[in-house]
Amino acid sequence: MNDPMQSPPPGPPQAPMYSPPSGGTPVPDYMVFAILSTVLGTLFNLMACCCLPVALGTGIFAIVQANKAKSFAAAGNTLDGQKAASQAKIWSIVTAVIGVLCLLFWIASLVFQFALNPQMIENMIR
């Protein structure tokens, strides 16, 4: 009946699965930080000086580098992934700093506008 020499029938073919190389450190991609700094930095940049969205360019570069870091990490190339991740982090920080500076400039311009023109405050109260 059951022949011990006979092997069981093969199962359905398995799809190849990705497993990162063991022993390697995980590579952060900073994608969320890059997207948030790009959106908020560009918004604040456009509020302060609407004709020059500098934060958009640096933010897009940060997103591209974050995507490269994710792709390199998925391919198992941790060295290039870490390089791209550090570039993504640097450009995300640059974008966030531009956004904060633009926000502070916008707030300061509002304060000076109201301080130099007291009639605006009187018109708002009425």
Automatic annotation (TrEMBL):
Q: What is this protein called?
A: CD225/dispanin family protein
Compartment(s) where it occurs, according to its Swiss-Prot or TrEMBL record: Membrane
* TM spans (from-to): 30-63, 90-116
What are its GO cellular component terms?
membrane
Which intervals of the chain are annotated as region Disordered?
1-22
- Main location as per UniProt: membrane
Q: Name one Pfam family in it.
A: CD225
Keyword Membrane assigned to the entry: answer is yes
Q: Which UniProt keywords apply?
A: Membrane, Transmembrane, Transmembrane helix
**Spans of biased composition, class Pro residues?**
1-19
